[in-house]
Amino acid sequence: MTDVGGGTPAAAGGPDVDVLVIGGGAAGLVTALQLAKLGHSVHVVEARERPGGFVSEHELAGIRLDSGAESFATRKGTVAALAAEVGLGDDVVAPNRAGAWVRWNGGTAPLPAAGILGIPGVPLADDVRRVIGWGGSLRAYLDRLMPLLRVRPEHDLGDIVRRRMGRRVLDRLVTPVVAGVHSADPSDVDVRTVAPGLTQAMTTQGSLSGAVMALREQAPAGSQVQGIVGGMHRLISALEEQLAFYGGTLETGTRVVSLQRSGEAGLDDRPDARPLWSVELARATAPSTPSATPPPTSAAPASPVPRRVTARALVVAAGFRPALTLLADAGVAALPAATAWPEPASVAIATLVVDDARLDAHPRGTGVLVAPGTTGVTAKALTHATAKWAWLAAQLPPHRHVLRLSYGRGGETLVEPELATVVADASTLLGVPLSVADVVDSDLVRWDDSLAFATVGHKARVAQLSEAVAAVPGLDVVGAWVSGTGLAATVEQAKTTASGIAAELRGHARLPR
After folding, report:
1. Residue 120 in contact with residue 173, Cβ under 8 Å?
2. CA distances from residue 5 to 20, 211, 303, 366, 498 in whole angstroms, order as listed
3. What backbone phi and psi angles, to 5 degrees, belong to 490?
4. In this structure, what are the phi and psi dihedrals at residue 402, rounded to the nearest 5 degrees?
5. Secondary structure class of 447 (helix, strand, coil)
């Protein structure tokens, strides 16, 4: 049998591994580590030359920076607990409390402090009036006076905000925040997904702003996001190391050619044989990494391929489109039709390392969100990384700063910006004229196949998909497109999935989700 991990060969007639995980992003690595800790042999295959998926890195001006996710939501403490589990607990930190700003046609101002997804809890507060003016604040305050009438359950966040508080709140506050967090328009997202409990709180409080304040009072104190000293990419390296420690193996630069279960196409016609998955692997035809110069990885190089690997269970941890193809190939019936899924978005992150002492004052806090339709700027957001993270500023020479600008909105074709455009956008958003000569180093990383989990109807599609996958023994699927936006949801679902697979391998039925 194939010795997939370089360890003890599988017994004759048995599977190569207990579990094969297809996809080495955060979801795949967490699933694999959990299974390895439970005593199962696990092998992970990743098409790119290094693992991590959207939690990746690149090197600019001699320092390693996040090229994808650079923070995580603190809800339930899920990611912080994982960081502690892999030895990074002492490196979990909160960002600068200064907060972000918002830019719209006509101005730039700090985001109001008392809000949820940009929905203000105090419509007449000074920081709210600064963004939407007296007229917008008075219109938003009508929410407190309007009766709350419902004839059906409400799902459309944009419609709720527009009816209760008016267009300015929606356009200048809510849309920039929702687009930045969920890569979607508020009218496309399900309020129950992005703001759980909000509509119920509206019923008890009698208004949208009252519901916002009630939910804020229930939320734990402290920052809603955290990061890791050195960058989020350290979490991936730590997961790799832990996986190897517990006997799991990781193979990069390898793609899946085909897969089938025993009993199909003569793979195993023994009537008493336990069903196995047989997966044909081949060298990835177009190796790709988010950065032009891939950093070193502890993963083993791809083994000689093509070859077949057999496993008792299979976990699909690939991106949206490849995962749907793999699940169909695995024989999953009753999958949602391809036309039922929205078009995934593409996002580009441009990173600049610049030398300019004027940025030492952090002129726009930790960054700027941009309202759609704002003229004079093409970026949808800017993160002043050295203002946001004290550890990063401490690693750089005086007056050196790291800026991250995001491009690409849902429903629009992504046009990758030139360096001059990125610098011009940074100048506009920060209120500090910069030039290309100030740029010490730069990089542009494109992320495709990003599916907004929060869109209306997506939870129903995922529920249908999960039910169909559960009907196939020894098969499951993980990843942000099925778990929800953000690393916290991804980690939680990955661990739950691993426990279910482990139970099935022991001969028990998996619990329904």
Report:
1. yes
2. 11, 53, 9, 44, 19
3. -65, -45
4. -115, 125
5. strand
What's the whole-model pTM score?
0.89
Neighbours of 245 (CB within 10 A): 12
Q: Which runs of consecutive H residues, i.e. helices, occur in 263-317?
A: none
**Do the beta carbons of residue 35 and residue 502 sit within 8 Å?**
yes
Q: How far apart are CA 187 and CA 140, in angstroms?
A: 18
- Helix, strand or coil, per DSSP, at residue 149: coil
Q: Which of 343, 329, 339 is nearest to 469 (CA)?
A: 329
Instruction: Give how far Cα 447 sits from Cα of 290, 292, 442, Å.
Output: 8, 14, 17
Query: pLDDT, tens digit, for every residue of 98-141?
Result: 889 999 998 999 999 889 999 999 999 999 999 999 999 999 99
Task: Give the phi and the psi of residue 331 in degrees, each rounded to 5.
Answer: 90, 20
Contact 249, 7 (CB under 8 A): yes
Identity at 160, one-letter amino acid code:
I
- Helix (H) / strand (E) element for 509: namely none
Q: Is 482 helix (H, G, I), strand (E, B) or coil?
A: helix
Q: Integer distance in angstroms from the first to the last C-alpha of the chain?
A: 35
Distances (CA, A) of 173 to 189, 205, 367: 15, 22, 15
Instruction: Calculate helix-pair angle for 208-218, 198-205, nearest 10 degrees.
Output: 110
Helix (H) or strand (E) holding 32: helix 26-37
Please name every residue paired with 447 in a beta bridge, in sequence order, or none if there are none. Answer: 347
DSSP string, 334-355: SPPPGGGSPPPEEEEEEEEEEE
Would you state the structure tokens that stand for residue 496, as one six-digit string?
């739950």
Sheet holding 92-93, edge to edge: 72-73, 225-228, 92-93
Name the residue among 257, 434, 452, 238 with its Cα closest to residue 341.
452
Give the residue ranges of the chain where pLDDT is below 70: 1-13, 150-152, 220-223, 263-274, 286-305, 451-454, 511-513
Closest CA to 374 of 172, 198, 111: 172
Instruction: Give the span between the Cα atoms of 356 and 434, in whole angstroms.
Output: 8
pLDDT in tens, 423-459: 999 999 999 999 999 999 999 999 887 766 667 778 8
Strands (E) located in 105-233: 107-110, 115-116, 119-120, 225-228
Q: What are phi and psi of 227, to 5 degrees?
A: -140, -170
CB 332 within 8 A of CB 472: yes
Tell me which DSSP letter residue 212 carries. Answer: H
Q: β-strands 17-22, 42-45: how paired? A: parallel
Q: Which two tokens stand for residue 460?
A: 């129903």
Residue 450, classed as helix, strand or coil, is strand
Residue 52 DSSP code: B
